[in-house]
Predict the structure.
Amino acid sequence: MKNKMNQLFKDERSVHVLYAYDGMESYLKQLMNYIDEGISVGDRVLVIENDRVARGIQRELKAKFSLEQIELVNIVNSLHFYWSSGSYHPPAIHEYFKKTVQPYLEKEQAFRSWAHVEWESVKEPLHLIEDFEKIVDAAVDEYSFPLICAYEKHKMPDHLITMLMETHPYILQEDDLIASEHYKLTNTMK
């Protein structure tokens, strides 16, 4: 799977991937592999993560990589990222993202991103999640970078799974990367 994903990123930088993970151990393994792959090709790696998981990532990075390699990884607090406007507002999230990646764009540095999308419960109106994913899908194309959106599988109701399959052209399963048969091309940049 690792070689398949690396080849896809080499052939096509604009890659938006859904990862519905099952358990924190699998999640951390995939995330660390993604960071490792990014570092190995010299990409900047933007990780949107909660504080608790971020502390564990920092420990793993220090144990595995040099200071120079660790500098390639930027961990952004997911609470600040998703709620920068005081509520979950997809255009504000997009602006926060643009501001975060602006230094990479200005220096023409290749980057990749991993976004841990967490919901205490999926009470947000579904259209907000769908709007967000459509904006993100367009941003992946505009800025030409790979992005993995990680959602916890057991917290995803069927209607959310369907919508996510329609807004992500690729799906990462534990050991495979496949094209989504349900993906609907969007051109929604807000």
